[in-house]
Design goal:
Length: 133
């Protein structure tokens, strides 16, 4: 599986299994994405990144990686063993599916979540550590 930013300065290759896609509606994800984040993740030693990723420390425990040339949101890097990858940066076909929503208490007031998938008002490790089918 491959992916990259809009301008092509940053590309990456994933060599291990990807987690199902989880949508995060927290304020930080809303601000950085412009809507909400939909992200998969992979073990850190199973992704090869080429090009220059710029990192923004968005909290005490996490940083967000983007391309400084085109502004694409690429990665969320938290405390766990996985690196989150913004699902929209993957090249198709991904074979992935959205499997749930987290931080729904912080979601924008201009949309509803109507897909019937599991929702959590806060963080939910059951969703964010889900393994692929
Ligand atoms: Zn770029
Ligand atoms: Zn979030």
């Amino acid at each position: 599986m491959t992916g990259g930013c809009l301008c092509g300065q940053v590309t990456f290759k994933v060599t291990g299994p990807l987690r199902p896609v989880i949508a995060c509606h927290c304020v930080q994800c809303r601000k950085t994405s412009g809507h909400h984040v939909a992200a998969t993740s992979v073990r850190r030693d199973q992704i090869e990144i080429t090009g220059e990723v710029t990192w923004y420390r968005s909290s005490e425990t996490a940083r967000r990686g983007f391309c400084a040339a085109c502004g694409s949101n690429l990665f969320w890097d938290g405390a766990g063993e996985n690196l989150s990858i913004m699902a929209g940066t993957l090249d198709a076909p991904t074979g992935l599916a959205v499997k749930g929503h987290i931080f729904t208490a912080d979601k924008g007031d201009y949309y509803d979540i109507t897909d019937g998938l599991p929702q959590s008002e806060k963080a939910d490790p059951r969703l964010t550590t889900m393994v692929a089918d």
